[in-house]
Write a structure and sequence with these properties.
This protein is 31% helix and 32% strand. The protein is elongated. A hairpin with a 5-residue loop joins strand 7 (160-167) and strand 8. The longest helix has 28 residues, at 2-29. The chain is α+β, with helices and mostly antiparallel strands. It has an eight-stranded antiparallel sheet with strand order 4-3-2-1-5-6-7-8.
């Protein structure tokens, strides 16, 4: 009986540890509790790719934000940078090895027609609500290093260099200041 009681108690404590860890990090970092696991996964990706030199290309610009996309040439992991008009910048990563792989089978003729028709309907539905224009700007990561719980990187954008401090856990730019391009790297 004592062994069963101990086993039940030990199992309850073990089950509570991840939840309490997430609760602590939610409180410490100001991230909603239901997003903590996602943010943990996001923090691992740039930390592993700290030696990647990513060149971002502007994908779309709207009245409220700019979206830039780049990839790590060593792992093919994708980084998405979203900058709001108020200057707040967030990063989101997509692990290439976790993307769905193309199906081995080819789609039937009917599948191709239905798929295109649905895609056309979605595009027509979104078009009036969203106003995007394509842009030709690029942002290049010149160097980056992990410092405590952040990635510090120097990026070159529109001929100017900027040092960014990106929170590993939240994916947000916590600090950003212009630096001279000629001696901005390596990061100390």
């Amino acid at each position: 009986v004592k062994f069963i009681t101990f086993a039940v108690l030990a199992g309850s404590v073990a089950a509570a540890i991840p939840r309490e860890r997430n609760r602590y990090f939610s409180w410490k970092n100001g991230v909603p509790f239901n997003q903590v696991e996602h943010r943990w996964n996001q923090a691992e990706l740039p930390e592993k790719k700290v030696d990647c030199r990513i060149k971002y290309s502007t994908l779309a610009v709207s009245d409220t934000s700019r979206v830039e996309v780049g990839s790590c040439n060593k792992t093919n992991d994708i980084s998405i940078k979203v900058t709001a008009i108020n200057g707040q910048t967030n990063y989101e990563w997509i692990a290439f090895d976790q993307l769905p792989k193309p199906a081995a089978q080819t789609a039937g003729f009917l599948d191709m027609i239905v798929g295109r028709a649905l895609a056309g309907e979605v595009a027509q539905t979104l078009a009036p609500q969203q106003s995007f224009r394509l842009a030709q700007a690029t942002v290049e990561v010149l160097c980056q290093a992990k410092q405590k719980e952040a990635i510090v990187r120097v990026v070159k954008e529109n001929g100017k260099c900027v040092r960014e401090t990106v929170s590993l856990f939240k994916g947000t730019v916590e600090g950003r200041n212009e630096v001279p391009c000629d001696n901005a790297c390596p990061i100390n």
